Every structure is written in structure tokens, then in C-alpha cells.
Amino acid sequence: MCGRFALRLDRPRIRHALPNAADWEDEDLFVPRYNIAPRTYAPVIRRVQSDRDRDVLHSMKWGLVPHWSKVEDKSLNTTNARSENLVERGGFWAAVKGKNRCAVVCQGYYEWLTKGKDKLPHFIKPKDDQLMLMAGLYDHAIIDGKSLWTFSIVTTDACPSFGWLHDRQPVILFTEDALNKWLDPSTQSWTPELTQLVQPYNDKQYHLDCYQVPKEVGKVGNESPSFIEPVKERKDGIQAMFQRQIQGTSKRKRTESPPCHTPPPKQEQEQEQVSKKVKHADSSVTPSPSSPRKQTPKKSSPRKVAVVPDKGKITSFFRKT
């Protein structure tokens, strides 16, 4: 299944990346987005049937409307076309699968991983950041006197390396030869070669990246460059927030308390020496065993200096630590 994809590149960059498609029909209908949803316009590559060597870009609406339709039926679920249904004879796709094949242009597509009641969106894209071409079907209808071009994305069983994410994935045209075979309308029918093309892709030939992205991409209309960035690497992500908190706490600790290897200030060293002298003098006084409560040790000014300030500083140091 493929229910969302991304193509945020500006039109000149798309043209530059696809030099074989010189013309772009209905170019103004396409708005670059990080979150392309069904019933919005996106560019596809199709081969002009009167000139088999000429490919054109064409902005079409996602969700195929059959050519015989008099109205745009929004209840019709044609976002995807299952490859198994294309291989079989007849069926809904029989009129278009032989000659109306196209390639949907994108930077990558989104898929949701179900974990209990939670659904976690993931973005799948080429590792080399090149454009991805997904196999599609298209049709042309006249609705209310206006021309309407629409498309569907062909899906197949997920390859073993992506089975953990979802049981379906788009058919990816990962070589120029695959693209040419898919776009070629000369046969006007479905062939064994086309059946081979819609098999799950071999990840040894075409390498993909897959990572979790923000949940906000699930809402139609939301737009953000963060939708195609890994959650772990986002500057506004949860991990980044915790990292900032850790760094802030570490900075406060360094400010409030000196490192373990830092020698004590000169004043503390002098007080420590005084404390040692007082303790030494205090150990020479032996209290009377018969009346320990009545006998009080001699008061001396050094003892006051040793007890109060020194204990206060040591206690506050460990509390901060």
C-alpha cells in the first residue's frame, strides 16, 4: 500500500533530474509538497503514444477515474492498483494496463508501522537521494466538460527486507531498462515481461533507506521539511530535547561544584590546617569517666572556627553533587 509520498523539489530541479522528459503538461497544477495525499496533483512520466521515443511529464490527480466516468466518484478507491489484479485477465484495470502505464515521480514514500494501537510513520527513499520512480497507471476522462487526467500507484508484495513494516509496497522502476519496458505502449496488452516487472524489488540492486518520521505527516494538509528527516536527528525532536536538558544539567554542575581533581581554594586549605590542629589538641584532653555530663571541654576560639564554617562547606558541597 502507498497512501502518501513526498516531492518537495522545485520544478526546475525536477526537470533537470529527468532530462528525457522534455515537456511538462499542466505543470502549474503541481505544487511541491512534503506530504502528497490522494486527490492532489503530482507529476508522472508517460510516453506519447504517437511518438514512442518521446516521454513527457504530466501533472495528474492521484486516484484514477476511468475514462467512461461521467462524474468523479470520490467513493471509488483507486489510490493503488494491486499487481495481482493486473496479471489476471479482465477486471477493473483491463482497459488501461495494456497501454496507459506511467511512472510516478517522488523523493520517497511513507508507510505506517502498526504497534498495538499505535501507528508509526516511516519514510522510504533511495540511499543516494536520487528521485524514485514508482510504477503507475493513468486514464483520461471528461468530467463536466473538463479534461481530467488521473493516476494510480501499482503495489506488490513487500520484499523480505521490508516485510516488518508492511505487507505491501509500491512497484519501483529502479533501472532505465525497467522504465522503458513499463512505459512502452507498443504491445497494447499485458505481457510476461510486465509481470516480471511488478515482482518485489531486489534490494541488492537498488538500495533504500527507511526510518521513522514525525506523526504529524499523517494529517492531510500538514507540511514540514521535518517529515522526511529521521525523528532521532530532528533539531526539534524528543531526543534532541532530552539531549539539551542533559547538557544544561551538566553545565550547571560544572558551575556549582569544582571537579574532583581541582585543588581546594587557599582559604579552605588554611581552615583545614586549623581544623587538624584543633583535633590534635582536643585529643589530648581526657574527660572524667565518673561524670562525663558535668565536665565540659575547655572553650577555645580555634575550635569555634574549625567546627562551624568547615562543616557547612562540606555539607553543601555533597548536597550539590
TrEMBL record:
- Residues crossing the lipid bilayer are none
Instruction: Give the Polar residues compositional bias ranges.
Output: 283-294
Annotated segments matching region Disordered:
245-321
Keywords for this protein:
Covalent protein-DNA linkage, DNA damage, DNA-binding, Hydrolase, Lyase, Protease
Task: State if Zinc-finger is listed as a keyword.
Answer: no
The molecular function GO annotations come to: lyase activity; peptidase activity; single-stranded DNA binding
Gene Ontology biological-process annotations: protein-DNA covalent cross-linking repair; proteolysis
SUPFAM superfamilies referenced in this protein's UniProt entry, alphabetically: BB1717-like
Keyword DNA damage listed? The answer is yes
Q: PANTHER family in the record, alphabetically?
A: ABASIC SITE PROCESSING PROTEIN HMCES, DC12-RELATED
Q: To which protein family does this belong?
A: Belongs to the SOS response-associated peptidase family.
Full protein name:
DUF159-domain-containing protein
According to the entry, what is the taxonomic lineage of the organism?
Eukaryota, Fungi, Dikarya, Basidiomycota, Agaricomycotina
